[in-house]
């Protein structure tokens, strides 16, 4: 049986920018080992697998995300990509929300005015670190402004603030050292600077070698804790963010208590059928 498959660049409206994700439309959710093989074949930072809910009376889609190496609990850019496909291909009406049953609970996406899609994600908690700061400093090769630990249900990331936007842009990652810190990944960030187009409130980069992604071009899930961090520092709940990887991407963020609303655009690069 053939399944529709799409490649979508997320958090951008410009082809070949943002973060590419594969989106596979299934008749029902498949075994994890098969989905992992497909994700490895696609070799993108994430491949999303979406299928109708087993209960036909629930208008909720089942959604799973896989890197080339493992399944993950939460992925923003592949959710933007999935919602974009469901809206643009007529699976979900533009005036209705796309609702997803995931490892991170029920998530939703709505299509706003224009081409922006808004995700409703849980806000991740932030804690002070429990390891010596020197260990983190040695791994990143520089002295940070602040270090926090951002927790999901079963995973965590390191949030590390650097002194400037230029320091984030110029950062040279040692993926072996980063991997030894443990956790899903390391997010470096700073307040936006004059050198950043559009003058965002903050910028970031994200490295996740422990899940098979040395540097992720644009990481929606990281903004579930970046939102809380920068909202407190800047005393505002509506923020604009740029992830300053080589591909780059733009996000609009609204912090709403325990929920983070993340908006982005997306563009389909190709579509076809998976035959095997």
Short recap of the structure:
The protein has 276 residues and is of the alpha+beta class.
Please characterize this protein's 3D structure:
This protein has six helices and 18 strands. The chain has 276 residues and is of the alpha+beta class. The chain has an 18-stranded mixed beta sheet that branches.
Distance between the termini: 7 Å
Report the count of strand segments: 18
Structural class given helices, strands, pairing? alpha+beta
Number of helices: 6
Measured by DSSP, the beta-strand proportion falls in 35-45%
Low-confidence stretches: none
**Mind describing the biggest β-sheet?**
18 strands, mixed
Oligomeric organization of the protein chains: single chain
Q: Which H/E pattern describes the elements? A: EEHEEEHEEEEHEEHHEEEHEEEE
The percentage helix is: 10-25%
Q: How does the overall form come out from the CA principal axes?
A: globular
What is the average per-residue confidence, as pLDDT, rounded to a whole number?
Answer: 92
Computed over alpha carbons, the radius of gyration is 18 Å
Give descriptors for this structure.
276 residues; alpha+beta; 18-stranded mixed beta sheet
Topology at a glance:
Blueprint: E1 3-10, E2 19-25, H1 32-42, E3 46-52, E4 61-66, E5 71-72, H2 76-88, E6 98-102, E7 105-111, E8 117-122, E9 125-128, H3 133-140, E10 146-151, E11 156-161, H4 165-170, H5 175-180, E12 185-191, E13 202-208, E14 213-216, H6 223-234, E15 238-243, E16 249-256, E17 259-264, E18 266-274
Parallel strand pairs: 2-3, 4-6, 11-12, 13-15
Antiparallel strand pairs: 1-2, 1-18, 3-4, 4-5, 6-7, 7-8, 8-17, 9-10, 10-11, 12-13, 13-14, 15-16, 16-17
């Amino acid at each position: 049986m053939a399944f529709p498959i799409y490649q979508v660049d997320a958090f951008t409206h410009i082809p070949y920018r943002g973060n590419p994700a594969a989106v596979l439309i299934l008749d029902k959710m498949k075994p994890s080992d098969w989905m992992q093989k497909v994700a490895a074949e696609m070799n993108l930072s994430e491949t999303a697998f979406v299928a109708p809910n087993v209960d036909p009376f629930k208008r909720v889609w089942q959604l799973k995300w896989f890197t080339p190496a493992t399944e993950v609990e939460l992925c923003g850019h592949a959710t933007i990509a999935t919602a974009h496909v469901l809206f643009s291909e007529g699976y979900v009406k533009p005036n209705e929300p796309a609702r997803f049953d995931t490892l991170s609970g029920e998530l939703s996406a709505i299509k706003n005015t224009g081409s922006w899609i808004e995700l409703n994600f849980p806000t991740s908690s932030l804690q002070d670190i429990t390891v010596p700061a020197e260990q983190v400093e040695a791994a990143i090769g520089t002295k940070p402004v602040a270090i926090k630990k951002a927790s999901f249900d079963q995973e965590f990331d390191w949030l590390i603030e650097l002194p400037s936007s230029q320091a984030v842009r110029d950062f040279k990652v040692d993926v072996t050292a980063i991997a030894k810190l443990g956790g899903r990944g390391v997010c470096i960030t700073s307040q936006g600077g004059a050198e950043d187009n559009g003058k965002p409130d903050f910028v970031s980069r994200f490295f996740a070698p422990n899940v098979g992604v040395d540097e992720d071009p644009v990481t929606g899930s990281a903004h579930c804790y970046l939102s809380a961090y920068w909202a407190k520092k800047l005393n505002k709940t509506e923020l604009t963010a740029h992830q300053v990887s080589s591909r780059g991407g733009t996000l609009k963020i609204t912090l709403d208590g325990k929920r983070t609303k993340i908006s982005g655009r997306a563009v389909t690069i190709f579509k076809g059928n998976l035959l095997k």
